[in-house]
Amino acid sequence: MGGRRVPRATPPRPGVGQAAGDRSCRGIGLMLVGLVTAQRRFEMVEVPEPEPRPGTAVVHITRCGICGTDLHGFLSADPYNPAICGHEWVGSVSALGSGVTNVVEGDRVIAGIAPACGACAECRSGRSAYCVPAFLGMIGRGPLAAAHGGFAPRISIDALRLIGVPAGLCDDEAAMVEPTTVALHAVLRTRPRSDDTVVVQGCGPIGLLTLQCIRALGAGRVIAVEPDQHRRQLALASGADAVMTPDEALD
Questions:
Q1: What are phi and psi of 47, to 5 degrees?
Q2: Does residue 180 lie in a domain region?
Q3: 73 and 36 in contact (C-beta within 8 Å)?
Q4: Which of 46, 129, 172, 226 has its CA 20 to 30 A from that of 31?
Q5: What is the DSSP string of 1-13?
């Protein structure tokens, strides 16, 4: 990507926050987006304002979470830099490309994972979770993918990936839907029963969400294992019956 870069001294703080600032006034048709451009280097980069293309929608982003994957892209020498960070976002549709019928302007939406293509070698061998076109779309290399993620005022995206947000969810909650689905998927695969004791190892954001999903599905007892004292307290507040350190769990 070309364009003038404005370096940031530190990476963004993890958590759900306001969307990236709109700096369109800096130049006609330009905006600032956040990119990890190299190991431990986060920059605000000027890019053209998104325009709707056939099959895409432009979304005005109101909230975007910071995933552990984003931090991994910042800390590691990722071969896909500039890393396409910011996939836990919510916003409203502001423009539509031709052929889009599943959303209308003004809809509040989040982005789903790109669907498997069904035609690549991985899909044909029954390994659709490793679909190459879907992966390329997620890292900004697909034909309908933006060259940046949700650390931006607006984004152009394949409209078929958009999922409507129920009116009962505020923007902060909607931005947490994607990581919650990660936790829920794991829990649904194990299907804890009311007489089961379930152990959650690690109480970062995904672990805490997993704990809450387990509790919501009615497991009999939930034990959280976590070395950090603050996170152990969060686990208790999130519904754990007991918490312990890894060393205590070995006894």
A1: -135, 160
A2: no
A3: yes
A4: 172
A5: --S-EEE-SSPPP
Cα angle 15, 21, 23 (rounded to 5 degrees) comes to 160
Assess whether 200 and 83 both reside in one domain.
no
Rounded to whole angstroms, the Cα distance separating 13 from 16 reads: 9
The yes-or-no verdict on residue 26 having pLDDT over 70 is: no
Count of domains for the chain: 2
pLDDT at 94 over 90: yes
Would you state the structure tokens that stand for residue 183, as one six-digit string? 């936790």
Q: Residue 227 belongs to what domain range?
A: 189-250
Residue 66 in contact with residue 13, Cβ under 8 Å? yes
Task: Provide the pLDDT confidence category of residue 78 given band limits of 50, 70 and 90.
Answer: low
Give the lowest-confidence range in 7-16, 46-55, 120-129, 178-187: 7-16
Alpha carbons within 13 angstroms on the beta-carbon side of residue 22 total 13
The answer as to whether 53 is a domain residue is: yes
CB count, 10 Å around CB of 219? Answer: 22
143 and 31 assigned to the same domain: yes
pTM of the predicted model as reported, rounded to 2 decimal places: 0.79
Mean pLDDT value of segment 111-133? 89
3-state SS, residue 178: helix
Average per-residue pLDDT in the chain? Answer: 86
The token duo for 246 is 């890894």
Q: Identify whether 167 is part of a domain.
A: yes
